Fold this sequence. Notes:
This protein has a three-stranded antiparallel sheet, covered by helices on one side. It is mainly alpha-helical. The chain is globular and about 110 Å long. The protein has helices spanning 25-37, 42-72, 79-100, 103-123, 150-171, 178-182, 185-198, 202-218, 223-242, 245-252, 266-278, 303-336, 340-364, 382-400, 403-410, 434-441, and strands spanning 130-133, 136-143, 146-148. Strand 2 (136-143) and strand 3 form a beta hairpin. The longest helix is centred in the last third of the chain and has 34 residues, at 303-336.
Amino acid sequence: MPGSRTGRPPVPRAARPLAAPRENPVTRYYTRARRAWDRPLTAYYLILGGSLLITVLGLVMVYSASQITALQMSLPGSYFFRKQLLAAVIGAGLLYAASRMPVRLHRALAYPILAGAVFMMALVQVPGIGMAVNGNQNWIALGGSFQIQPSEFGKLALVLWGADLLARKQDKKLLAQWKHMLVPLVPVAFMLLGLIMLGGDMGTAIIVTAILFGLLWLAGAPTRLFVGVLGVAGAIGALLIQTNSNRLDRFACIGATEMGPDGSCWQAVHGIYALASGGLFGSGLGASVEKWGQLPEAHTDFIFAVTGEELGLAGTLSVLALFAALGYAGIRVAGRTEDPFVRYAAGGVTTWITAQAVINMGAVLGLLPIAGVPLPLFSYGGSALLPTMFAIGLLIAFARDEPAARAALAMRQPRFGRKRGAGGSAGPRRWNTMRRRTSAVRSSGER
């Protein structure tokens, strides 16, 4: 045959396999990030790591923002920092205890916490026991320089009690009736709001209202019912704002960039000045100018402005990203559970923390009226920090209790130290060194 020396027909060559198309690096990284994001323990790590980072950064900023205020009050420069550190240590104990409690114990604590919160909030109005701070009668003196704000514990009480109530009614299939969905949840929430508003604390009342709406939304309240409750709450809020000149002035300062001739909008404008002077990376930790008496409440309600001045846009976006991750993790825990109590409690805690963070940062940015609420886990204030850290412990406990997360945690083995045998008893101590692994794999001398 022509073209073949042996006369045999030529053997056709096998076609070369087509090279696999190169994967776009952006697509590859996105796929890896998506896989990591969907792991069972992602929510657990986001809640634990995000809350701890916010708390630690908050301690640093409290120390930086409160030094001048403390010196002006003839106190040591670290006075507010030491009090916040003490509250953080106690809060860490509460967080650990809450994260280790079973769900049934959380449900059992709902009614005692609600009763205690209502009792303390009523004590605030008793002359000689309650005390006023910045015009709000919402505090109880504990002796010395320590005070407590019971309305902060009212938020936690409403979340736990409301979640337990709705879970019981869902088990009995009663939530399809509007009267069972509203009663007694809405009357008890309005009682808490009334006790809060007796002291004039509009900001905390807004957060409690947000928690109530979050619970009703998770319970599947119909639109007309939801709009009806929102309309009643809005009418009451508008009446309270119209009858108080201080609240009207706060609404007038939304978006203000210059102070009035009488010095109005001083705090809002100086908060904008602090953010504007921070630039991209800030003036440096401790180098804020506005905290030298120009910006009121620099270590409490407006600590986000000092953060923007000292750490710049990078610092404020980092804080915002941490709160966004915390909110996403809370929503994920609430959405993946089959336990109705866990769903309502996780959703209530997430609504509480995200709503309060948005209201605080929105006020500092001039997008919302100044409500006088602290930034959760970040601002100075032990009364706000303790119940918030307990609530974070709730989210951690719920994230650990997911079936996939439980399985992932159960599969973990200690990397060093004593390993358990097949029967569960502790065997002899073995160390996972490279030499031991190599000798165990190749016992015949084969390389």
